[in-house]
């Protein structure tokens, strides 16, 4: 498999079930992948731009792994992108360092998938909420290779040991689906 970089944008993996399980599974099954846990590396949000750009340069496949927070990526992942995707590096007349790299989104939501529709509680589809990532790929000349997601892994549905085990099982399945996609790229 090509060089895989997985950027975890969860703001607190110590309180996570879904993203933690996905990352643990990926770490076991893709031992060569580089996994970056932004919450552990940058609890103060002070991103080491040079170090993060070097990781991007080494990667062929870039996975953004995150829980949906307020219909988007969590703040620490937004910060990482704001800092790392700099004019002259990722975009601008001389910024082409991400050109032809492949971007994959891997995310979890608290709400069930049915709520993400024009008639549902969220009012928009998940794909519509992801437009900013597709636009980022367009500007930085990365290839957007789609998303792997798991819905309904909310705090409200992890109130018993059985429900927690169910969310963990869904998260392992999620990791397997992600690996299957990566193997095709
Ligand atoms: C600050 C915050 C905002 C959230 N916003 C959303 C949201 O907009 N849509 C949604 O479906 N779930 C939302 N959730 C639920 C998370 O997506 C859910 O808790 C997460 O995917 C579970 O993953 P974890 O076990 O790795 O934390 C939010 C949770 C938090 C804490």
- Rg result: 16 Å
CATH architecture: 3-Layer(aba) Sandwich
The ligands bound in this entry are: flavin mononucleotide
Mean pLDDT figure = 97
- List the total number of helices: 7
Order of helices and strands: EHEHHEHEHHEH
Strand content: 15-25%
Question: How would you describe this structure to a colleague?
Answer:
The chain has 185 residues and is an alpha/beta fold. The protein has a single domain, classed as Flavodoxin domain (Rossmann fold, 3-Layer(aba) Sandwich). The chain is 40% helix and 17% strand. It has a five-stranded parallel β-sheet with strand order 2-1-3-4-5, sandwiched between helices. Helix 1 packs across helix 7. The radius of gyration is 16 Å and the shape is globular. The termini are close together. The mean pLDDT is 97. Flavin mononucleotide binds next to helix 1.
Features of this protein?
Rossmann fold; 185 residues; five-stranded parallel sheet; 40% helix; binds flavin mononucleotide; 7 helices
What's the topology here?
Layout lengths: L3 E5 L9 H12 L4 E4 H4 L7 H10 L2 E7 L7 H10 L17 E7 L17 H4 L1 H10 L2 E8 L10 H24 L1
Parallel strand pairs: 1-2, 1-3, 3-4, 4-5
Helix pairs in contact: 1-7
TL;DR?
By secondary structure, this protein is α/β, with parallel strands linked by helices.
């Amino acid at each position: 498999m090509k060089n895989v970089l997985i950027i975890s944008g969860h703001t607190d993996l110590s309180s996570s079930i879904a993203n933690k399980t996905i990352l643990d599974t990926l770490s076991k099954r893709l031992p060569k992948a580089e996994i970056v846990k932004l919450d552990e590396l940058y609890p103060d949000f002070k991103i080491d731009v040079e170090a993060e750009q070097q990781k991007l340069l080494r990667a062929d496949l870039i996975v953004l792994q995150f829980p949906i927070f307020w219909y988007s990526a969590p703040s620490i992942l937004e910060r990482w992108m704001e800092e790392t995707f700099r004019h002259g590096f990722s975009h601008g007349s001389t910024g082409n360092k991400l050109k032809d790299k492949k971007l994959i989104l891997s995310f979890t939501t608290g709400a069930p998938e049915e709520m993400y529709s024009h008639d549902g509680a969220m009012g928009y589809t998940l794909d519509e909420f992801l437009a900013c990532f597709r636009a980022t790929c367009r500007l930085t000349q990365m290839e957007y290779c789609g998303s792997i997601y798991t819905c309904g892994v909310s705090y409200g549905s992890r109130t018993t040991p059985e429900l927690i085990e169910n969310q963990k099982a869904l998260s392992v399945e999620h990791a397997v689906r992600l690996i299957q996609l990566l193997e095709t790229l």
